[in-house]
Amino acid sequence: MKKFVNDPNNFVPEMLKGIALANPKTLKYVPEYNLIMRADIPIQDKVSIMQGSGSGHEPAHVMAVGKGMLDAACPGNVFAAPPADYVYQTTKLVASKKGVLHLLNNYTGDTMSFETGREMAEADGIEVRTVVINDDVAVKDSTWTVGRRGVAGNFFVIKAVGAAAERGRSLEELEALGNRVVAVTRTMGMALTGCTPPAKGTPIFTLAEDEIEMGIGIHGEPGRKRVKMAPANAIVDEMLEAVASDLPYKAGDEVALMINGMGGTPISELYLLYGYAHEQVEKRGMKIKRNYVGEYCTSLEMAGYSLTLVKLDPELEDLLAAPAEIAIRVF
User: Is 278's pLDDT higher than 80?
Assistant: First the structure.
C-alpha cells in the first residue's frame, strides 16, 4: 500500500497542521497537545463541546470543529486514544463558565483517557459531563470495547448537541440531549477491503476478492462475520434489517438515513447504495426527513460503508437542520 507519508510518527501532527492552515479564520492547531479548536475559544456564554478519538476517521472528529458543532477535538495517533493529559489540557483550554461536555465513542482506550482527563479537570474546579456513543449494532463486545462501539452515528450526537449549545442550553440539558440521541441511533458497517495504518505498513486484515466483512468497526478491526461478495442491494437488505430491527424502528417513524463511506468507496457507489436503502426504508413505512451521503467517519482508505438510522422528533430534526460552520465544505 502506497501512502503520502513523510515520517509515520509525525503523520497526525502534519495532518492537523494542514487542517488548521486550510481553515485559518475558524480553526487553531495547538501542537503541544495535538488538538484542533475553534479560533474564537474560549466562549464564556455557552457550554463547550469536545470530542477525542483515534485519528484515521477523518473528517471525524477534527473536521467537525466549528460553530454549531464541536469547540475542540483532541485526536490520538491513528486508531489510538488520546493521552489522558491531552484530554485534560483540551478541557482546560475550552472550558467556559457553563462547563464542558465530553463526547466519546465507546472504545476502551477512549473511555479510560476521558475518565482520567475529566477527573483532572474536575480537580481544577471545571464542571464536566460525559456522553458515551454506542450506536453500532454489529457486536456487543469486541477486542476494543466493553459493550457496543461508537461509530458513524456520533455525527448526529455532535450536530444536535452542538446546535443546542449555541442556543444556550445548560450542561445538564446537553448531557440529557446527547444521551437521547444515542438512544435512537443505530449503525452497521461493512468492508470490501481492510486498511493500512501508516506506522504499520500492512493491512490490519485482508479479504479475498470474493469476500466481504460484515459488522466492522472504525479502527480497521474485523467484523462479526466474513461472507461471499453479493449484489449491492442484498448487502443493503442485510444491514438495514440488522439496524432497523434493533431499536426497533417501525412504520410511522420519522428518521434520518445516512450512508457513510469508510474512506475508499467512490461517491457514485455510495449514491447507488443510498438510492436502494431509501426505497427500502420507505417500504417499511418510515418517513425519511433528513438524509446524508458521503464520508463522515472513515477508517483510512478502507473500501466499504456504514448505514445509520436515527429516529427523529421535531426538536431533533430542528437541531440537525441548524447551521454549522465547520471544515467539511464543498465551496
Answer: yes
